[in-house]
Design goal:
This protein is an alpha+beta fold. It folds into 2 domains: 172 residues, 2-Layer Sandwich (Beta-Lactamase); 150 residues, 2-Layer Sandwich (Alpha-Beta Plaits). The N terminus and C terminus are likely disordered. It is built from 8 helices and 12 strands. Strand 8 and strand 9 form a beta hairpin. The radius of gyration is 28 Å and the shape is elongated. The strands form 2 sheets. A 6-stranded antiparallel beta sheet has the order 3-2-1-6-5-4. It has a 6-stranded antiparallel beta sheet with strand order 8-9-7-10-12-11, sandwiched between helices.
């Protein structure tokens, strides 16, 4: 079948189908908004019972979207994620025609009598980032050359859109997170502190600011090298993140070896209890490298005004640093 025959078979669409896919795929940087309409449109261009989108993440092929024709025979029933293989992540367009579903190729399907699958790679800069599977009953018409070329052209547009979405998400994440440790950065800290102080002032509730400074980090960094120092920072951040209440507390790295935790609805006493546990947990987590201790300070609203909260925490941290090496006991609001 030539291009003209294919166009006549599909209602004389010409290149309108490609323009439509480009429009739908480019409407948003949120994959959740573009994938469903794109898959539905693809099923109209290349008629089939089911269209499945799979993406490669951490060497695993995951099903991230699918469209099904109402009343279709091919049903989902297998795993939605499977180990990437040379075949599953191939950059070549392939057709699978089988009397029974091959689990290694199409593991997301339940047991079927047969399937005809057009496997279309999603490729960006010669790298396969996933694939589109067009599925028909094994007794249906085979995929024509025209349909294969349409599917390949649409897959290129969708691949570029998904790649742009992933890059946007990565840059957006880096804007608010510390690349080394994965917790919040200084920008995240400033925004969160302003937000939580405004909420605390509105409802007259406590919010505590815990500042942490690792003791003798420069000495450890010199002894272990940069990679060892980085690992100490990562392990410290992991402890803070794990001890934080999910969706409530905010853990950030705000300087070289300085960290902070914003603790809504927590007064100074509870914040101090948390800090004491963190001292032990950080020492345990870094024991195999260089057992780290840290100095810390706590300031709490409304005991300290919102305007002076950060300044008070800084002053108290400096006071705590002068007492490093002592047993951790409350010293007013400055604790070492």
């Amino acid at each position: 079948m030539g291009p003209d025959d294919g166009q006549r078979q599909h209602g004389g669409m010409g290149l309108d189908w490609l323009v439509h896919i480009a429009y739908v795929a480019g409407k948003s940087l949120d994959p959740g908004e573009i994938v469903p309409p794109v898959l539905a449109a693809l099923a109209g261009i290349v008629p089939c019972e089911r269209v499945v989108l799979l993406q490669i993440r951490d060497d695993v092929m995951e099903m991230t979207g699918h469209w099904s024709r109402p009343g279709g025979r091919l049903a989902m029933g297998g795993t939605c994620a499977f180990k990437r293989s040379a075949e599953s992540a191939s950059c070549d367009l392939r057709i699978i025609e089988s009397a029974c579903v091959e689990a290694a190729e199409l593991p997301y399907l339940s047991g079927q009598d047969g399937v005809l699958a057009l496997i279309v790679p999603l490729v960006v800069d010669y790298v396969c980032i996933g694939r589109l599977d067009f599925l028909r009953d094994v007794q249906a018409e085979p995929f024509s050359d025209w349909e294969q070329q349409c599917a390949l052209a649409c897959a290129r547009l969708l691949a570029l859109s998904l790649h742009n979405s992933a890059e946007y998400a990565r840059v957006a994440w880096l804007a608010d997170h510390d690349a080394l440790t994965g917790i919040g950065n200084r920008r995240n800290f400033d925004m969160a502190l302003n937000r939580e102080l405004a909420r605390a002032e509105r409802y007259r509730r406590d919010v505590s600011l815990l500042l942490i400074d690792l003791d003798d980090f420069k000495e450890a960094n010199t002894h272990l090298g940069l990679s060892g120092g980085d690992e100490i920072l990562r392990r410290t951040a992991k402890v803070l993140s794990e001890r934080a209440r999910k969706g409530v507390d905010v853990s950030c790295r705000i300087g070289g070896d300085e960290f902070a935790m914003i603790l809504p609805e927590i007064g100074e006493g509870m914040a101090n209890d948390l800090a004491q546990r963190l001292v032990k947990d950080v020492a345990t987590a870094t024991m195999s490298l260089w057992p780290m201790r840290f100095s810390y300070s706590i300031s709490t609203y409304p005991a300290t005004s919102a305007e002076l909260l950060r300044r008070a925490a800084d002053v108290r941290l400096m006071a705590a640093k002068t007492r490093k090496g002592a047993i951790a006991v409350p010293l007013g609001s400055a604790v070492q």
